[in-house]
Amino acid sequence: MGASPHTPGIFVDRKWGVVVLRLEKRPTPSKFWLYATPPVAVILTMIAGGCLFAAMGKNPFEVIRTIFWDPVFGEFAFYLRGQLLVKAGPLILIAIGLALGFRAGIWNIGAEGQYIMGAIFGAAVGLAVFPTENRLIFPVMVVAGAFGGWLWAMIPAILKTKFNTNEILVSLMLVYVAETILAKASTGFLKNPEGMGFPGSRNFSSYPAAANPELIAGSGLHWGGVAALVTGVLAYILLTRHQAGFQIRLAGQAPRAARFHGVSPARLVVMCMGISGALAGMAGLFEVTGPAGQISIDFNTGYGFTAIIVAFLGRLNPLGIVLAGFLMALTYVGGEMASTNLGLPDAAIQVFQGMLLFFLLAVDVLTNYRFRLAVGAH
Amino acid sequence: MDLGGINPVILIATLMASAVPILLAALGEAVVERAGVLNLGVEGMMIIGALGGFVVAVETGSPVLGFVGGAVAGAALSLIFALLTQVFLANQVATGLALTLFGLGVSSLGGQGYNGIKPPATGQLLPDALADLPVVGPILFGHDWVVYFSIAMTAVLWWVLKATRIGLIIRAVGESHEAAHALGYKVNRIRLMCIAFGGAMAGIGGAYVSLARVPQWVDGITAGAGWIALAIVVFASWKPWRVLIGAYLFGGITVLQLNLQVAGSGIPVEYLSMAPYLITILVLVIMSAGRRGKANGAPAALGQNFHASR
């Protein structure tokens, strides 16, 4: 091993003769790589994904074109572009909330549970007053959805601040709890009384006061998409212009300095978890009243987990997340296309999304470090 | 003695088997975390192990080779985590999550075509003469080899961590990587080996789910067992014997709630099936309450990457 204190600390000190490839910390993070990382990661993922698709016996170029080109510019783009907005809305909404916490070192990874609980709370309010028609019903449902998600996120937040319990594990356990509550809701307390015994609630599309329809026909834009875009702008302002945003960034980058600055860690946990929970809950409500249409056992499709990838892909920056949300929506919409037209299994898209996060994390090393070819220091 | 149709002897024997996956995965993760690495990808490594083990066992007809396959699959996946966190110095929490998402996807993709197949059985290890003894028979002698392996691994890891030089090095790396580095230990290399070991253990645990507990291939077969293993490591204060206790307690709760579902206790099935998760949260709260800061037994360098600038 020859462990002299001068040995580069990196595990693979590949030696070509006396030349060593070593990692050197940059004095300040590279602005170039901060922005270049996501596109590079996407390209690397396309290459690796192409190899995967080729190994599965598909034409990689055709698959990549179907996923990334056809939904935007292809034959059915007029319909699929709308679908992009439908998928991107909840992803953006959830990811922005998560990013606030991730920036402060608070890891809420149970957004899927908060999304489900938001949908249940909001839907319950709407179904309770069925069939009353009143313009206030939908706004109240949105608030109830946000409240449901917030409440579910407060459990790990309060346990963290009062008992120092790990928020990663608690928020994740609560996803499984939320899923069983969802099963109970769709077969029990929210079941459609006129549903002839089938599981699932009443369909909101036949209840105008509580429905979340497309605002402009064919655009795919519903209130969730509007909320996502508005939240993106608000979160950007919060992070760059507001005291609370400064505290979030400070706590993430220099926890000790943050404490001296008077930032209360407990308050920060409650605030970040609360915002992300409320946003995830709202996303759930928009989904269940709009694209999903009803509470059913499997209306949730893992947006809460995919949003984690979106948050990182967007560099934890609200505006970046909006772009990342559309890109990830593209993999969903294009993936469905590839699944129906080319017989690509749905799971392949999940693998593809996972790979994207890997490449992103790997390339990210270049933001803070640079590779240097050095003459061997032995 | 029967408690409302639940036989305590059978209950104990079953919980020992049902605890094996989380016990093995949690033991592996305990070593990883003692080396200062937080790998949240346990769920992903378990499910890859479950698939790898299942495929190898079905294709070769040998359950033992299946477990080897599970270990290799889990370790292989963990090497991605090792590469990203030890070479590219990526954030461990994010990379662990990525590993889980990726593992779930890969397993779902690779498992197509294996649904509805029965894997070769992993039988009882000891002769019936012992296993048929009253009370002690089912509890002590009625298990397959993996159950004994999991208990043996608990003892081995306890001894290795407590009394051997390797254990001391692992703990040194996990408590203060700067000091370990100054002493001449290759911090990242040691961590990489611990990560691979953790991956192999999670893989064997996953293989036990698909080869012995279920036993067949279903999408998402591990159903959060990896996350529970992570919680049990915290519960156990990173100590192997306490990991065993935690896993058995959890196994007991799972078996009990399943028995209650079958026995028709009048408690709705949904509430029973969320019980294990709620109890895990409760236990986490009890274990972390009142032990703020470094005093809770967590390795001091847990979750921090190491880059030697000199």
Give a written overview of the molecule.
The complex is a heterodimer of chains A (378) and B (310). By secondary structure, chain A is mainly alpha-helical. Chain A has one domain: Orthogonal Bundle (ABC transporter involved in vitamin B12 uptake, BtuC), CATH 1.10.3470. Helices cover 67% and strands 4% of the residues of chain A. Chain B has 310 residues and is mostly helical. Chain B has one domain (8-296): ABC transporter involved in vitamin B12 uptake, BtuC (Orthogonal Bundle). Chain B has helices spanning 8-18, 20-34, 42-60, 63-87, 92-110, 128-131, 136-141, 145-163, 165-175, 177-182, 187-213, 225-235, 240-263, 269-288. The chains are: A mainly alpha (378), B mainly alpha (310). Chains A and B meet through helix 6, helix 7, helix 12 and helix 14 of A and helix 4, helix 5, helix 11, helix 12 and helix 14 of B.
**Please, what is the average pLDDT of chain A?**
85
Helix content of chain B: over 70%
Query: What is the H-and-E element order of chain B?
Result: HHHHHHHHHHHHHH
What is the CATH architecture annotation of chain A? Orthogonal Bundle
Strand content of chain B: under 5%
The secondary-structure class of chain B comes to mainly alpha
**CATH domain class of chain B:** Mainly Alpha
Q: Which structural category fits the helices and strands of chain A?
A: mainly alpha
The largest β sheet of chain A comes out as:
3 strands, antiparallel
Could you please say which CATH topology of chain A applies here? Answer: ABC transporter involved in vitamin B12 uptake, BtuC
Uncertain parts of chain B: none
> Which CATH architecture of chain B is right?
Orthogonal Bundle
Tally of contiguous helical segments of chain A: 15
Low-confidence stretches of chain A: 1-12
Q: How many β-strand runs of chain A?
A: 3
- What is the CA–CA distance across the termini of chain B? 67 Å
User: How many β-strand stretches of chain B?
Assistant: 0
Helix content of chain A: 55-70%
The oligomeric state of the chains shown is heterodimer
Number of domains of chain A: 1
What's the order of the H and E elements of chain A?
A: EEHHHHHHHHHHHHHHHE
